[in-house]
Amino acid sequence: MPDTHTQDPAYNYAYLDEQTKRMIRRAILKAVAVPGYQVPFGGREMPLPYGWGTGGIQVTAAIIGQADTLKVIDQGADDTTNAVSIRRFFARVAGVATTTATPEATIIQTRHRVPETPLMDGQILVFQVPIPEPLRMLEPRETETRTLHALQEYGVMQVSLYESIARHGRISKSYNYPVQVNGRYIMSPSPIPKFDNPKLDRSPALQLYGAGREKRIYAVPPYTPVKSLDFDDHPFEIESWSECCALCGSRESFLDEMIVDDQGKRLFVCSDTDYCEGRR
Amino acid sequence: MYVAVKGGEAAIAHSLDLIADRRRGDRGLDELTLEQIDQQLGLAVDRVMTEGSCYDRTLAALAIKQARGDLIEAIFLLRAYRTTLPRFGDSVPLDTAHMVPERRISAAFKDVPGGQVLGPTYDYTHRLLDFSLAAAGERPTAPTAPADTAQALPHVGDILAREGLLEPAPANDAPPQDLTREPLSFPADRPLRLQNLARGDEGFLLALGYSTQRGYGNNHPFVGEIRYGRVAVGFVPEELGFEIEIAEIEVTECDMVNQFAGSAEVPPQFTRGYGLAFGHAERKAIAMALVDRALRGAELSEGADSPAQDEEFVLAHSDNVEASGFVQHLKLPHYVDFQSELVVVRALRAEVEKRRAETAPLTQAAE
After folding, report:
1. Residue B130 CB: number of other CB atoms within 10 A?
2. Contact B195, B51 (CB under 8 A)
């Protein structure tokens, strides 16, 4: 059962003032209408630092209602410090119910993972995004990259993937692996491992991406095709492990590696704590 | 096992208690009051108000106390508070020619109308530790001349402009974009750039301004004038329809006068760089004026090859709340990304090993 909370009356509902929330909702609507397109928005300073998820927090604050149930994960886990802190923030300023169970949640704010449990119709996945521009490391200038997107001129990305194959024999990009949304915009899926990329494709859930410091919002509507970039002779593939989870025995989930003693002994466990607990 | 790597509610609660405890320090000593910070660490308060873009000495002092003197953290606290405040409207532009100056100097002219007023400055102190300050004691009050509040202090730049030696002050009555309400977009116009620089990190602007002086986009600057003092803030409430004075604030203003070789259309003349900060902040105001002028390189056909002339580079990295957040977010867990990297690096290494094993016999045969 979700945990219930009471809103702190010293703050407006969900912290932001109503006008700001309306402005963010307009940006979200535009983002949903043009999947994968980065919509500039008037990002506000939040009481959490830039880099801590201010974009995701603003998106969540703009969409969360009293009937919602919120789940927050960081690195797949509900009990990491940042997830605890953000969940507590919304429990305080919105008084909404919170949960760690993926199926119970109506809004899931995440940093760096997509839950293992398949998402459902009506759920919203809010991503915290550090660098929304997938071409940023190839072209540092915003004026340039916006033009490249407008012209759908993505050769520079294909070349970078090709160079990786030429140099390493494979595409060495492991997280923040670029995708193309609905056959149009190339999009950063945020620094999720490429393991999670297939979960974005035709997901029943609405995906909202918020970048606070860079002041951009983008979105993938439900059931939208999301293709990880690759080549015919070098098809996209995800990480795999020869080990299984030490706690639940899963061979299908993304595993975190832990060093358990000073001899360097290792243990592998599910990154998604809710999924793992549900299987034990 | 999870306890070792994943923080929980209890750990955070204890951490919060501990930081509050460390903030208070030795309980045998008196606790700092906000009045003491305001009065005796006034320049820190000025910086926090400027880069926090919120003029409130008490709140800035509170932020400094809460941040234990970490000024960027204090700026962050003040910004996060400021963001919750409603916006009533824009004030009318400050009339700094009617400043009641505490200090006003020109480095371009030996004397200027209204005179050189040295005021309080470290410029001419000898940087020797004053051990008498280590002990408590009565400090004498400094004598000051009565200020003539009615006297207008014309800007040195306006005097030069009348001769045509300095470009005219830019006329732009369009309401400026508000960076705290709308995202930065490029190319940015000058009001927007100045807004960004006013909020920008003093250290960052200092280094950039310094770089222009060392040849990276040099613009041959002179401090036309720098003034610090109190100015009235005017506001026109919609229901009244006329201007009323709502506050008096302290600001530091720097008018930089820079050489300009001229172009095909414009004969050689001096050009302007501008800096403004809350309170007494000359280093900030001067650095800001240098960078403002450097960012006009393209407009004045000087090229834009140096970092300080690069609008996107400067404006995108000047904000210390943004920078501090993203730099320090590296402390947050990255287990998942690192795990992905581990998997890939192991696979890449395995392939190298395999290739080595395959080529090794061939090498032997060749020998």
Report:
1. 9
2. no
For B:141-180, CB contacts with A below 8 A are 180
- Cβ <8 Å between B322 and A41: no
Q: Sort residue A176 into left (φ over 0), alpha (ψ -120 to 50) or beta.
A: left
Higher per-residue pLDDT: B241 or B109? B241
Which chain B residue has the Cα nearest residue A75?
B336
What does the DSSP assignment read for B322-333?
HHHHHHHGGGS-
* Strand, coil or helix: B104: strand
Distance from CA of B138 to the nearest CA of A (A): 42
Question: Which chain B residues are within 8 Å of A39, Cβ to Cβ?
Answer: none
Q: Give how far Cα B319 sits from Cα of A81, B79, B205, B345, Å.
A: 26, 12, 10, 35
* Topology (CATH) of A18-135+172-228: Rossmann fold (3.40.50)
B128: buried, middle or exposed (CB in 10 Å: 19+, 13-18, 0-12)?
A: exposed
Domain boundaries of chain A, sorted by first residue: 18-135+172-228, 240-280
Q: Which of B66, B343, B346, B358 to probe by mutation at the A interface, max A CB count within 10 Å?
A: B343
Q: Which residues pair with A181 in a beta bridge?
A: A185, A226
Q: In this predicted model, what pLDDT tens digit does every residue of B271-310 receive, in sequence order? A: 999 999 999 999 999 999 999 999 998 888 887 889 999 9
Selected residues 192-221 of chain B with any CB under 8 Å from a CB in chain A: none
Question: Cβ–Cβ of B12/A84 closer than 8 Å?
Answer: yes
Please provide the average confidence, as pLDDT, over all residues in chain A: 94
pTM: 0.86
Give residue B172's pLDDT.
74
Query: What is the chain A residue with the closest CA to B322?
Result: A50
Q: What is the pLDDT of residues B219-278, one digit of tens each?
A: 889 999 999 999 999 999 999 999 999 999 999 999 999 987 777 777 788 999 999 999
Residues 6+ apart with CB under 8 A from B247: B55, B232, B233
A97-98 sheet: strands from edge to edge: A39-40, A216-220, A206-211, A124-128, A107-111, A69-74, A97-98
Q: Which has the minimum average pLDDT: A119-123, A124-128, A151-155, B184-188?
A: B184-188
Q: Are B224 and B157 in contact (CB under 8 A)?
A: yes
Interface of B with A in 248-267 (CB under 8 A): none
Q: In this structure, is the dihedral angle defined by the CA atoms of residues A65, A66, A68 and A72, taken in order, positive or negative?
A: positive
- Number of Cβ within 10 Å of residue B157's Cβ equals 23
Rounded distance between C-alpha atoms, residue B319 and residue B53, angstroms: 11
Q: Which residue of chain B has the CA closest to A74?
A: B333
Q: Is A276 a catalytic residue?
A: yes
d(CA B43, CA B280): 7
Asked if A49's CB is within 8 angstroms of B76's CB, the reply is yes
CA–CA separation, B48 vs B64, rounded Å? 8
Distance from CA of A182 to the nearest CA of B (A): 26
A40:B183 CB<8 A: yes
